[in-house]
Amino acid sequence: MRSSIRGVALCVFAASVLAASTASAQKKPAKPAAAKATKYGALAVDRKQGFIYGWAYDQPSRAEASEFASNECSKRNGNCTVVVEFSGEGCASYHTISAEDGSAYGWGTAPTQAGAEARSLQECNAFSDGKASCGNHVWACNSKDVAPFKVLREDAVKAKPAKTDCLVQYDIDVETDGDDNWKDRYLSPLYRLAAADCPSTAKTQFHSFYYGNDNGRINEGESNPEGKKDPARQAKGKALALAFSQWVASRRPLDAGLHFRTTASATVTVASDENQAYLTDHVGQSDSDRVHGICLAYAPPGIEPVATYGAEHCQRWVR
């Protein structure tokens, strides 16, 4: 009996194994979950005029998103650059101050609209340094239920100071009406420019480009040049002086009985701590170190300075 029961048990076990093997062979493998679609977004802005911008979202590719944002920005006559690219289920946000207050702005990205808005507002407030309210705000989000959020590009809102920067400051002499005697000198704040925007520079604090037009007689050039000549950078310096001279030509000193000398100049030097301190200290002062608090409300046209120094010394502005 034992042998017979044992034989039956073995048969049952073998049948069970066979049935399990057959069921396993007939079971189809589970299909992998379908990959979610990826959507793309982008932001393009005019860094010189921050209120000019263009958005893209839910675009089928990164390239198409960037192109769409650039085109939207260019339609507003902007000199536009793509500064943000993102993909998946997420958002980007953009804050600016009002156009009449200047051109401070900020952007940010995050998986949620609220997170992106907080980032862009923080960046804009830091850029404006509390001088104006970042009250203008726009945002864009890709559709939900797409691929996970990913930041593909997010440029720095404002360039950070670098050793390769240069310093630029504008000045014009003031003379008395009638006898043309030197009376004073007006300066702009000191501007720090990124290397790509810099003209020829020198280590001296008195290297400058100048331009004047006295009844058709042109007076232009470069003073105290150093090192190897770079025609392209020299041309940038001459262009700075020319644009400043044209601006000055349509303005007068704040005090009566005075006029500007016809030749205007732009000091350009390397961004050393010594040069920065010296030139900043002279904002709002004449050559005789007499504090008058008068400044020129003029900055390099079409260039966003990395930093501005000395404006706190200004009490009155020539605009």
Tags for this entry?
319 residues; alpha+beta; 2 domains; 4-stranded antiparallel beta sheet; 16 strands; elongated
Q: Can you describe what's shown?
A:
- The protein is α+β, with helices and mostly antiparallel strands and 319 residues long.
- The chain folds into 2 domains: 40-154, no CATH class; 166-318, no CATH class.
- The chain contains 5 helices and 16 strands.
- It has helices spanning 2-26, 62-74, 113-128, 231-249, 273-281, and strands at residues 40-45, 53-59, 81-87, 91-96, 105-110, 136-141, 150-154, 166-176, 182-187, 190-193, 208-214, 217-223, 258-270, 294-296, 307-309, 316-318.
- Strands 8, 9, 10, 11, 12, 13 and 15 form a 7-stranded antiparallel beta sheet that branches.
- β1 and β2 form a beta hairpin.
- The longest helix has 25 residues, at 2-26.
- The chain is elongated and about 105 Å long.
- The termini are far apart.
Mean pLDDT figure: 88
Instruction: Estimate what percentage of residues fall within beta strands.
Output: 25-35%
Main pleated sheet: 7 strands, antiparallel
Radius of gyration: 33 Å
Q: pLDDT below 50 for ≥5 consecutive residues: which ranges?
A: 1-24
Termini gap:
117 Å
Helix segment tally: 5
Number of strands: 16
Write the layout of secondary structure elements.
Blueprint: H1 2-26, E1 40-45, E2 53-59, H2 62-74, E3 81-87, E4 91-96, E5 105-110, H3 113-128, E6 136-141, E7 150-154, E8 166-176, E9 182-187, E10 190-193, E11 208-214, E12 217-223, H4 231-249, E13 258-270, H5 273-281, E14 294-296, E15 307-309, E16 316-318
Parallel strand pairs: 14-16
Antiparallel strand pairs: 1-2, 1-3, 3-7, 4-5, 4-6, 8-9, 8-10, 8-13, 10-15, 11-12, 11-13
